[in-house]
Design brief:
alpha/beta, Lysozyme-like, 3 helices, 27% helix, globular
Length: 134
């Protein structure tokens, strides 16, 4: 069994707002969970397997990315964190995962850096909402 330290959320604008299809191909995604812009929750990779997240952080070497993937659960969230249709799905997923991994740190992909955590205001709000649920 893997030791999970992080849940890493890759949030982005919805595909529709970028002019792309809302149908996500999940066969080549490196995420354990995907919440698409249509409000569907997909689970392309079992959490017992490491993720294959692409972490474009300047300060991470490939072997550090591999170590981070080994101890994290990846969530692809195709929308803004403020989206009232999708946010409850994300909170429910995080709440469920927190029950299994109570010591986990929840981060946005853009917050993680080799040297420090770059806190995002919208992620802090999400973490506060989640702590109120627990």
């Amino acid at each position: 069994m893997r030791h999970i330290k992080y849940i890493i959320i890759n949030d982005s604008m919805s595909e529709a707002s970028r002019g792309k299809s809302s149908n996500i191909r999940i066969d080549n995604l490196g995420y354990h969970y995907v919440i698409n812009s249509q409000g569907e929750m997909l689970n392309p990779i079992d959490v017992s397997n490491p993720s294959h997240l692409e972490l474009e952080t300047r300060n991470l070497k490939p072997q550090e990315v591999e170590r981070l993937n080994a101890c994290s659960i990846g969530v692809k969230y195709n929308g803004k964190l403020s989206d009232p249709r999708l946010r409850p799905l994300l909170l429910a997923l995080l709440n469920e995962l927190h029950q299994y991994y109570p010591e986990v740190t929840i981060l946005a992909k853009s917050e993680y850096d080799r040297y420090h955590i770059r806190v995002r205001k919208d992620m802090n709000q999400l973490r506060r909402e989640l702590s109120d649920m627990i």
